Amino acid sequence: MTEKPEIFARGRFPDPTEELLEQHFNVHWERRADDRARMLADIGPRIRAIATTSAQRTGGDLLDYFPNLEILSTFSVGYEHVDIPAARSRKILVTNTPDVLNECVADFAIGQTIMLLRRMGEGERYLRAGQWPKGAFPLGAHLGGRTLGLYGLGGIGSRIATRATAFGMKIAYHGRRRRPEYPDYAYHDTLVGLAKACDVLIAVLHPSPETIGSINAEVLEALGPKGYLINVARASIVDRDALLHALQNKTIAGAAIDVFWNEPNADTAFFDLERVVLTPHQGGASVETRAAMGRLMVDNLLGHFSGQGVLTPVS
Ligand SMILES: NC(=O)C1=CN([C@@H]2O[C@H](COP(=O)(O)OP(=O)(O)OC[C@H]3O[C@@H](n4cnc5c(N)ncnc54)[C@H](O)[C@@H]3O)[C@@H](O)[C@H]2O)C=CC1
Ligand SMILES: O=CC(=O)O
């Protein structure tokens, strides 16, 4: 019987994923190490793969423990927690888990849109606080007839658009180029232009040098006092101080934030604001989606070790 490849596993995965990893590999769990430095020194040269969640940062300093590392497989679409140039310079293949969570994150983004516009979270807090007998809760706003602006029209963004259309919303988007496959969606060649044109701006794209901090004071001003921001991408895309200022001064109507600047610590400065929905990075957090992500992460590792090739390399 051939030896199972030895892998280093970082973070905590759902039980079925951990079982799959144990089934196919000889797994060294970082979280179970009594003495991490000794563990790394002992197993480093034998490790051929890393499996990781997005909560762990992997840079060149860690990769140096693994001179025979071939592949790093992350249990996430996002890969900003991996130092891609450091991996590339060591000829380490990196894979992620795109597409299997598109529908799940799109459902969630629409859920946040409804929650925000219809003020459902605030309404529930009002009821629980015993405020209802003192007067009816203020009115919310419809989705139908409003324009949804997508900053990122990829796997997830395109699914959000389909759902929003069913709610009667018009779709606009900003990207690096016009997408002829979406003739019914209005293209804006600047983010400010998109923000001006839409009522609800949803960020759903990878953080990159080009996009980090791109939702800034100018964009929020363009969104205006009747505009809502929803961020299901990464916090780094939004200028935190500009957003806080806009919410405090009501220069935008509200925001839903699923991703934070220092996860898993939420930013308490946003806690007491009205018209704000805060969630703990739940976009892809369903049992079914997590299982599919785990399967894909493991399939990438199996594809690599069988010689058949990985399914979803980070390009
Ligand atoms: N909140 C959550 O739980 C989750 C968040 N995400 C986030 O969503 C992001 C997007 O995921 P996918 O839709 O799968 O990615 P994708 O790669 O399919 O789509 C991203 C889109 O953004 C566009 N884009 C890239 N740079 C741009 C720029 N400078 N200006 C405008 N558009 C640009 C791309 O052309 C592409 O159409 C992920 O990178 C991740 O950060 C993903 C999964 C779950
Ligand atoms: O944020 C989640 C991911 O898969 O990326």
UniProtKB/TrEMBL annotation:
Top-level taxon of the source organism: Bacteria
Residue ranges of domain D-isomer specific 2-hydroxyacid dehydrogenase catalytic in the record: 16-314
Stored Gene3D superfamilies: NAD(P)-binding Rossmann-like Domain
Keyword Cytoplasm on entry: no
Pfam families from the UniProt entry: 2-Hacid_dh, 2-Hacid_dh_C
Keywords tagged on the record: NAD, NADP, Oxidoreductase
SUPFAM superfamilies (alphabetical): Formate/glycerate dehydrogenase catalytic domain-like, NAD(P)-binding Rossmann-fold domains
InterPro entries membership: D-isomer_2-hydroxyacid_DH, D-isomer_2_OHA_DH_cat_dom, D-isomer_DH_NAD-bd, NAD(P)-bd_dom_sf
Domain D-isomer specific 2-hydroxyacid dehydrogenase NAD-binding: 111-283
GO cellular component, one term: cytosol
A GO term for molecular function: glyoxylate reductase (NADPH) activity
EC numbers: 1.1.1.26
Family: Belongs to the D-isomer specific 2-hydroxyacid dehydrogenase family.
UniProt-recorded name of the protein: Glyoxylate reductase GyaR
Species, as recorded: Afipia carboxidovorans (strain ATCC 49405 / DSM 1227 / KCTC 32145 / OM5) (Oligotropha carboxidovorans)
Gene name per UniProt: gyaR2
